[in-house]
Amino acid sequence: MKRRTGQDPSVTRNWKPATQAVRGGTARSEFGETSEALFLTSGYAYDCAGDAAARFAGEQAGMTYSRLQNPTVEMLEQRIALLEGAEACRTMATGMAAMTAALLCQVSQGDHIVQGRAAFGSCRWLTDSLLPRFGVTTTTIDARDPQQFEDAIRPNTKLFFFETPANPTMDVVDLEAVCAIARKHGIVTVVDNAFATPALQRPIDFGADVVAYSATKMMDGQGRVLAGAVCGSEDFIINTLLPFTRNTGPTLSAFNAWVVLKGLETLDLRIRRQSENAVKVGTFLEQRVPRVNFPALPSHPQHALFMRQMAAAGPIFSFEVDGGRAQAHALLDGLELIDISNNIGDSRSLMTHPSSTTHSGLAEEKRLEMGITEGMIRINVGLEDADDLIADLDQALRGAGL
Ligand SMILES: *Cc1c(COP(=O)(O)O)cnc(C)c1O
Predict the structure, then answer these.
(1) Which positions does the record annotate as the modified residue N6-(pyridoxal phosphate)lysine (predicted)?
(2) Residue 5: what pLDDT?
């Protein structure tokens, strides 16, 4: 370990996650700064033309252009790779840039994807609307049942693509079972792990190949910047992902990378405290609304599987009221502390009505197939005192007749 300048990966890999979250990937400049430096530069200068040629030829280590490399961005990529237990990571400008790159870099005309029904709205648009234009087809299944993955496999199936837990229904996928099916058939698994983050769940430990993130959510964790990441084997990142991203340019800005580096320092603390608050709020809501979709609660049918895969509850879940959109909107309108906002992973508590916001771009029958009802509300439980959150929900529920 070079105390002042850089890190020896053989040492940092053995650090515990909480240590990696604070120190992993840090590369110090000649000034020995303690907090990571922010390199706002688009280009790099060379000592001579020969050096420039050697760098472009890949014969000399060093950076050439910030679409391809940036010191601040690389620190974040190394930190996320360490936390994820992945050989390599590349960051992207947003979570959707990460999902798009993770899929498009490896599919070709004629390929087939099997995807979980419950997913972030834009992820469904990618597979249902964009990819078919290029001859890539998708079968959508209930990902809670591993057998449905196996049954949907065709000779041209290239990928399994799913979230767990999924947005906003909280469907849980059995990572070990589904990744084993994929391995048996030579299929690549792409897991959107935005809700859990590596602090609570590391899909690669269960056999997943590629893990993709919206780092906008828990990794930043304070609702400031958009960011994304794709993790996988060195071979996948270098030979499959990079040719796509270097030339299409979904690059994360150095400033946003720096903000996410700061966010990761407190990820473990935040997610554990928010998880505790979420369980308190979920337990309260269970007494007051007909349905709470939160696998961390013992009453949930997927509780045992969820607890096997996740180190804690996470901050996000959904619940349902019987009075449809009108009652859901009335409940949101009655909130005094919790914000009506469709973001998640923030340290502030936020609530949204998915069918009229995040998933409004999908046809109603598609929403119902995904399990998103008109009475469903999603909540991100923040770092406020849980008693204040429960008091706010209590008065808003009463105002909405609940
Ligand atoms: C937010 C989110 C995305 C998209 O990420 P952006 O950073 O908003 O582009 C993808 N998947 C899941 C599960 C998300 O929650």
Answers:
(1) 217
(2) 54
* Full-model pTM: 0.96
Contacts of 171 (CB under 8 A, 6+ apart): 116, 117, 118, 142, 143, 144, 163, 164, 165, 302, 371
Q: Contact 157/151 with Cβ under 8 angstroms?
A: no
Please name the CATH architecture into which domain 268-399 falls: Alpha-Beta Complex (3.90)
Average pLDDT on 226-248 reads 98
* Most informative mutation of 163, 216, 230 for ligand 1 (most atoms within 8 A of CB): 216
DSSP character for 341?
A: -
Q: Which residues contact 54 (CB under 8 A, 6 or more apart)?
A: 60
- Residue 1 pLDDT: 43
Please work out whether the CB of residue 167 comes within 6 Å of at least one atom of ligand 1: yes
Class of domain 2-265: alpha beta
Domain boundaries, the chain: 2-265, 268-399
Q: What is the DSSP string of 240-282?
A: IIHHHHHHH--PPPHHHHHHHHHHHHTHHHHHHHHHHHHHHHH
pLDDT score recorded for residue 366:
87
Q: Is the CB of 25 under 6 A from ligand 1?
A: no
